[in-house]
Amino acid sequence: SASASPCSVLHAAPVPQTCSHPSAPKAGDQEKGLSALEGVGFRVGQGLSERLTKEMPSFKDELDVVKFLCKDLWINVFKKQVDNLRTNHQGTYMLQDNQFLPLSQLSNGKQYLEEAPKFLAFTCGLVKGALSNLGFDSTVTAEVTAMPSSKFQVVIQKS
Amino acid sequence: MHLMSSELFTLTYGALVTQLCKDYENDEDVNKQLDKMGYNIGVRLIEDFLARSNVGRCHDFRETADVIAKVAFKMYLGITPSITNWSPAGDEFSLILENNPLVDFVELPDNHSSLIYSNLLCGVLRGALEMVQMAVDVKFVQDTLKGDGVTEIRMKFVKRIEDNLPAGEE
Question: What's the ipTM?
Answer without folding.
Answer: 0.82
